[in-house]
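## tool: complex_structure
## caller: assistant
## args:
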Amino acid sequence: MSGLIDFLTDSANWSGTDGIPTRLLEHVQLSGVSILIALAPAILLGLYIGHTRRFEFIVSIVALGRALPSFAVMAFFFPMQLRFGWGFTPWAAVIAMVLLAIPPILTNTYVGVRDVDADTLEAARGMGMSERDVLRKIELPLAVPLAIAGLRTAAVQVVATMTLAALIAGGGLGRYIVDGSALGSNSESGVAKLLAGAVLVALLAIVVDGFLGIVERLASPRTTSRGRRRVPEEHLDVLPAPDLTAS
Amino acid sequence: MADVMISLKNVSKRFEGTSGAAVEDLSLDISKGETVVLVGPSGCGKTTTMKMINRLVEPTSGSITVDGTDVLHQDPVQLRRGIGYVIQSIGLMPHRNIADNIGMVPRLIGWDNARIKERINELVEIFQLETEMLSRYPSELSGGQRQRVGVARALAADPPVMLMDEPFAAVDPIVRERLQDQFLEIQARLRKTIVFVTHDIDEAVKLADRIAILNVGGVIEQYATPEEILREPANDFVRSFVGRERGLKRLALIKVADIETELGPLVAPQVPTSRAIAEMDGYGLDWVSIVDDGELLGWIDRATAERSTTVDPAEARPFSAYVTAESSLREALEAIATSRTQVAVVVTKGQRYRGILTLERISKEIIS
Amino acid sequence: MINELFRWDWFFDHLPDIWELTLEHLRLTAIAVVIGFAISFPLGVLAYRHRRTYGPITAVTGILYTIPSLALFMMLGPVTGTLSVTTAEIGLVSYTLLIIIRNTVAGFRGVPEDVKEAARGMGYTARQSLWKVELPLAVPAIVAGVRIATVTTIGLVTVTSLIGHGGLGIYILQGLSRLDSTLTLTGAVLSMFLAVSADRILVIVERRSTPWAQTRARAS
Ligand SMILES: Nc1ncnc2c1ncn2[C@@H]1O[C@H](COP(=O)(O)OP(=O)(O)OP(=O)(O)O)[C@@H](O)[C@H]1O
Ligand SMILES: [Mg+2]
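## result:
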C-alpha cells in the first residue's frame, strides 16, 4: 500500500513517455476513439430499426456480441494487423473495444425508440407530422436518455477493458499493469506499479461514469414542474431472446 | 337504529410533508348490513378514509372501531384478513391463476384445500364466472371479468365487512351497469357491511343505503339516504354535486308500486265500438286498451274504432313498452317518452293489466 | 507466422484437450455465478427492503466492477496465490455482483404498487408479501441479471488464462503469443458458443418459472 502511494507521489512518474499524464492521455484517447467509432453505427442502426421495426433480428445478433470475449477479438485481429504491416500498434484492441461498445448503445437506442408510447405516436401522426418529424421531434428526444444510458455502460466497460491493449504492446494505463506484473509479485516496485495502474483505471472509469450520469440526467425529460426528472432504467435484458418460433 | 358495525370518531389524517390534512375530524357510523357509499370530488379523502379502516393508512388522531373493537389495538394483519378489500386498480396477482387469486385469503387463514375449492366454486356461481376460467391467469380475462374476480376474492373468506374503492371504475358503462345489478342482487342475499367509494353520484344513488357526501379534507357535507339527499340537499355544495337532474335521479328511487296508477281507458273485446269511443272521450284521448278478462291484448285508435261496429281484438296493436310494479318512475318516464300513446302501461307478471301512468302523475312526484 | 486462417487437422487432433478445457471453462463459470448469486441475491433484497443501503452496496460493488480484470487477477496473485483457482474465482465473482444486485433490485421495484397494496390489504405480512408475491414477479429481471452475469463471466474466464487458468482462454492466449489464428478462433468461437447456449438455457429456465408471463404466447 505504501508502495502505491510512493509510486503516485514520485515526481519521476509524472513526466516522460511512461509518466502518468502520458499514459492517462493515451488511455483516454484510445477509449475515446473506440467509443466514437462505435457511436455512429450503433445509434443510426438503433434508430432505424426502432422506427421502422424492420430487421429487428439484427438487434438480437448484435446483442450476442456481448458474449464475444474482447480478449479473443484482440488476439484474433492482432496477427492480421501484423500481416497488414501496421506493426505494434493498438488497433486490434480498438477493434475489440468498438465491438464491445456497440451492443449496449444499439440495444438501448432501439429500445428507447421502440418503447415510445403508441398513443403519443398516433397523436403525432394525427396532427399531421411526417415520418421524419415523428422520428426527429418525438422518438429521438424520448430515446436519447436511454441511448446515453447505453453509452455510459459502454464507456465504463471500454475504459476498464482497454487495459488489454498493453498485452499487444499498446499504450494506456494497461502498461503499468502488464509491466508491473512482469516484474513479478516479489518485486515491490512491480506490485506498486500494478496497483497504480488498477487504481488509475478504476478512478477514470468512475469519473467517466459520473460524468455521463450527469449528462444522462440532463437529457432526461422533466416529469414535474419542480424539475424532477425521470431517469430511465437502462434496458436490462441485453440479450433479448429471439423468438425462434416466429417466422 | 341497527347495531353499529364501523364507527369513526374524530378521525384525522395528516400525511407527512403535506400542509393541509387529508381528512380532518371525521366522524361516521355505519350500521351492520348497510351499504354506505362515500362520494366526493377527487382528492377529498375518500380512499384515505377507507384505508384507515383496515389500517393501510394509520390515522393521526381519533379512533376507529370495527364490530366494537378498536382497530388500533388489533394486529393489522389479523384485522385485514377479516375485512374484504377491493382496490380501484383491482390488483390481481399476475403470477397466480384465477382460482389461486380467489383463494388467497382463505389459504392465509388456514382453510383446508377441499373447503377452499368448494368456496371457489360457490363464488364462481355467484359471480357468473366460468369454471374454465379458474385455471387462466388474470391477463387472459376481460376487464369486467377481472373486476368480478377482484370482488369475488374480497368475498372469499366471507368477511362481514367489505371495503370497495371504486371497484367498477375501470369498465365501460354497460358492463358497469351489469356489475352494479349483480352487486345489488348479491348484497340482498349476503347483507354485508360495505363501505363503497365512487365519484359517480348515479352509482351512489343506485347502490347505497346511505350516502356520505365528502368535501375536501374529508368534511361530511351530508350523510343520509339517497332519497333524502336528492329531495333535500343540505347545502349548495351537495346541490351542485348531485347536479341539476336531481328530480330525475330521484325518480330512479321511486317504484311504480309506491304510487297510485289510474285505471285508464279500456274495453273488453267484441263490445260495440260506441263503448270504446265513449271510453276515449271520457279520458280525452284518441285510443283505448283492449283487456280480455284482465289480460292486456293491445290498443286501438279512434279511426280504427270508427270503421267497425264491434271491437275486434285482431286489430289490437301492441304497446311498445310496458312497466311493472317493480320498475322505477325513471323507467316509466322513459316508456312515456317513447310510446305513441304518451302513457306508460303498467302490467303485472303474465301481462295482467293494472293501469296507466301519465306524465302529469309523474311530474307531481318530481315536484313534491 | 502461420498463414492459414483455420487448420481443421489441428482442431480434430486436439478434440480431447478441447473437451477438457471446455469443461474447465464451464466449471469456472458455474462456480463464479453460483457464488456471485449467493452473495448478490441477499444483498439485493436488503437494498430493496432498506433503501438507504442501496447507495453503499452499489457503490462498493460498482468499484469492484470498474477495476480492470487484468489488474484484479494480477493484484490478487500475491494474496491468494498466483496460480490458485481462488484468485480466478474471486475476480470472476466480484464482476457478477453489481449486475445481479442491480437487476434484483430493479425486479423488486418493478412489482406494481396495486399488487403490493392488494396483498397488504388482504392481510399478507410484509414477509409473506415479499416471498410469495414480490419475488415471483421479480423473477424475470433477476434471471435477466443472472443471464448477463453468466455471459460476462464466460468472456472473463478467458482472461484468467493470464494467471494459468482460463479454460478455452488458454487457446486464445496461445494463439496470441504464437500468432496462430486457429488457436484463437477455437477459443473464441467455442467460448462464444458456450455463452449463447448458457443464455438460451437460462431463458428456458425463466420461461418455466414464470408461466403467467407466457400467456400471450399461449393465446396466439
Ligand atoms: N401517501 C400520501 N402522501 C401524501 N399525501 C397523500 C397520500 N395519499 C393521499 N394523499 C393526499 O390526501 C388527499 C386525499 O387523498 P385520497 O386518495 O383519499 O383522495 P380520494 O378522495 O380517494 O380521491 P380520488 O377520487 O381521486 O381517488 C389528497 O390531497 C392526496 O393528495
Ligand atoms: Mg381514491
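## assistant note: Chain C is about 80% helix and 0% strand. Residues 9-219 of chain C form a domain with the MetI-like fold fold (CATH 1.10.3720.10). Handing back to user.
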